[in-house]
């Protein structure tokens, strides 16, 4: 995850950045994808950004909400 800056757009539908998601986890207590969706709207449209299993797009996303949660909620 070190190769992504906080300005990296994780959710292109809602224009939500990695920094906004990390803020939701660290500062607002998000512990689930549903928490992140409620606080930032990430994942609330097409859902491709939630996980690799949810990504039916082509090309595939490079970073998913479940990966971010795993990294920052340990």
Task: Tell me about this structure.
This protein is mainly α and 74 residues long. It has a single domain (9-72), classed as BFD-like [2Fe-2S]-binding domain (Arc Repressor Mutant, subunit A, Orthogonal Bundle), CATH 1.10.10.1100. 34% of the residues lie in helices and 7% in strands. It is built from three helices and two strands, in the order ββααα. A two-stranded antiparallel ribbon has the order 1-2. A hairpin with a 4-residue loop joins strand 1 and strand 2. The longest helix is centred in the N-terminal third of the chain and has 9 residues, at 18-26. The radius of gyration is 11 Å and the shape is globular. The mean pLDDT is 94.
Which strand-content bin applies to the residues?
5-15%
Structural class: mainly alpha
Global morphology: globular
Helix content: 25-40%
Number of structurally distinct domains = 1
Average pLDDT reading = 94
Report the strand count: 2
CATH 2nd-level architecture? Orthogonal Bundle
Specify the CATH homologous superfamily: BFD-like [2Fe-2S]-binding domain
Largest sheet: 2 strands, antiparallel
Radius of gyration over all CA atoms, rounded: 11 Å
Write the element-wise H/E pattern from the N-terminal end onward. EEHHH
Unreliably modeled segments:
none
Biggest sheet strand order reads 1-2
Number of continuous helical runs:
3
Highest-level CATH class: Mainly Alpha
Query: Span between N and C termini?
Result: 14 Å
CATH topology: Arc Repressor Mutant, subunit A
């Amino acid at each position: 995850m070190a190769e992504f800056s906080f300005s990296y757009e994780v959710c292109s539908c809602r224009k939500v950045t990695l920094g906004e998601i990390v803020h939701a986890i660290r500062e607002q207590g998000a512990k689930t994808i549903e928490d992140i969706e409620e606080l930032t709207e990430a994942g609330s449209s097409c859902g491709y950004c939630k996980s690799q299993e949810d990504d039916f797009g082509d090309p595939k996303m490079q970073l998913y909400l479940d990966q971010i949660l795993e990294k920052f909620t340990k």
